[in-house]
Amino acid sequence: MRSPRRPATAAALAAPLAAVLAGGCAPAARPSGAPAAATPAPSAAAPTASTTLTADETRMRDAVRAHYDASIDLLARAVDIPSGTHNLAGVRRVGDLFATELQQLGFRTRWVDAPAGMRRAGHLVAEHPGQGARLLLIGHLDTVFEGDDQKWVRQDTIARGAGTGDMKGGDVAMVLALRALKEAGQLERMHVTVIMTGDEEAPGQPIAAARTTLTDLARASDVALAFEGGSRSQISVTRRGSSSWTLEVKARQAHSAGVFSEGAGYGAIYEGARVIDEFRRTLSGQPGLTFNVGLVGGGTAAATDTSLTRITSEGKTNIIAPTFVARGDLRFLREAQKDSTRAAMRAIVARPLNGATSTITFTDGYPAMPATDAGARLVAAFDGTSRALGYGAVQAQDASSRGAGDVSFVAPFIPGMDGLGVSGRGAHSPQESVSLPSLRMAAERAAVLMSRLSREWPRRPAS
Predict the structure, then answer these.
(1) Dist CA 89 CA 328 (whole Å)
(2) Which residue, among 118, 271, 140, has the nearest Cα to 197 in the 3D structure?
């Protein structure tokens, strides 16, 4: 269950924002083992937070509205291409669709294949060299679900289907914003790079290799904007990291009549239940920390399949079970919180019940994206943009109310902001939908914001 969404308070943002307005720009914290980030050059002032549109910005807004209906048609075509993460041909077809759109805007596009052993489609990269701050725009092409019952269905201002909100809708908002910039005569001068990953919903492993293209592009950029699901009043400059864990228990197999005895012991299932419940009792309640159990199995035999999403188990009621397996995830605000939680989980596992032996392994996933002064600065710029367009104030979103996202991988290198996409319901479920008017809002705000950042965000010196 997701935590309620709580915007950051004005007090929480005031101190870092004041420091930035005075000229500071602290680099993002980096995961252990990550290369040090290049520090952006200080800026004498934050990007404009003007709540009035210039003539060029008014042209951008009008261009978005002029192409709104055509963009809905583009979204329908994208949604009707099945592109679950493991549908490699489908992901590539969606990439080809967006590549054509970006080529029409003057971008050079290329497809980056994933290593064959990953069984992933790869990523679309589009590049538009120019002046000013180097913007990196992030989207993804794959969906959680697909199938005939997940095709595009429109009912007035609501549309349903796989990827309508997460995140083919965000990809279309990105393209629509770039089209508006081109028609307003602004894109020609701008330096913009786009990456749409093909495996955001289920990244290939090892994940560091799966995200090499993204991190390489981040090193050559100044600021990142990601187009995952958006909100009228909130934007994300912090995201929790995520990783997975697997608990395996082995125990003595014996007749059930002897369970709990010194000779027979407690068995693997009781030990697995002890460990999981002690996780809950010992670690729950820490701000920003969750550790979900998503899959369990036990008996005389229990084994996961190659996808790690299915456990096959068997057993009998009169046998003390010798095997137990559980898999779950761990989400955290900072890398230090991840490390301390893992240490506590290992300590719990190291105290098994009589007759059992437990082991726990961890697999790194998405790094945490912590709060920074530069993030507060981006929020201020986006808030001014939203007010100028008549959409009202915007605040920073609580990191615990969002899942992990590709933008986290750029955090060790450059500032980033997520949540510039469309608004909808039912993400990661067969009931996924999008509010179509949010496509227009997302594109208008993104176009004006990109134009302002391009002119005013500091460009890092060449390394």
Answers:
(1) 30
(2) 140
Query: Please, are residues 330 and 242 in contact by the beta-carbon 8 Å criterion?
Result: yes
457 and 43 Cβ atoms separated by less than 8 Å: yes
- Token pair of 185 as six digits: 């005569």
Summary mean pLDDT of the chain: 89
Alpha-carbon distance 32 to 461, whole Å? 25
Say if residue 272's pLDDT is above 60: yes
Domain residue ranges of the chain, discontinuous segments joined by +: 10-239+369-456, 241-366
Opening angle at CA 115, ends 109 and 117, nearest 5: 150
d(CA 88, CA 106): 27
| Nearest alpha-carbon partner for 447 in 235, 192, 220, 215 | 192
- Within the chain, what is the greatest distance between any pair of CA atoms? 83
**Contact, 429 vs 269, CB < 8 A?**
no
Domain boundaries 241-366, CATH class? alpha beta
461 phi/psi in degrees, rounded to 5: -65, 150
> What's the pLDDT at 400?
76
Range 218-257 burial, b when 16+ CB lie within 10 A, else e: bbbbbbbbbbbbbbeebbbbbbbbbbbbbbbbbbbbbeee
Tokens of 143: 């969906």
The structure tokens listed for 39 are 């520090």
- Separation CA 173–CA 163 (nearest Å): 13
Closest of 24, 29, 28 to residue 41, by C-alpha: 24
The per-residue pLDDT for 48 is 63
Query: In whole angstroms, what is the distance from residue 430 CA to residue 387 CA?
Result: 34
**3-state helix/strand/coil string of 143-159:** ECCCCHHHCCEEECCEE
**Beta pairing, strands 158-160 & 153-155:** antiparallel
CB 191 within 8 A of CB 132: yes
Tell me what the mean pLDDT of segment 295-324 comes to: 92
Give the CATH fold of the 10-239+369-456 domain.
Answer: Aminopeptidase (3.40.630)
Structure tokens given for 33: 């083992």
Tokens for 165, please give them.
Answer: 């909100």
Show the tokens assigned to 174.
């990105």
Give me the half-sphere count of Cα atoms (radius 13 Å) on the Cβ side of residue 376.
Answer: 23
Average pLDDT on 274-293 reads 95
For the entire predicted model, the pTM comes to: 0.81
Q: Which helix (H) or strand (E) holds 275?
A: helix 267-283
Q: What is the pLDDT of residues 22-42, one digit of tens each?
A: 333 333 333 333 434 443 433
Omega before residue 417 within 30° of 0, cis: no
Q: Which helix (H) or strand (E) covers residue 125, if one does?
A: strand 123-128
Shortest CA distance to 163 belongs to which of 383, 373, 428?
428
Is the distance from CB of 267 to CB of 355 less than 8 angstroms?
Answer: yes
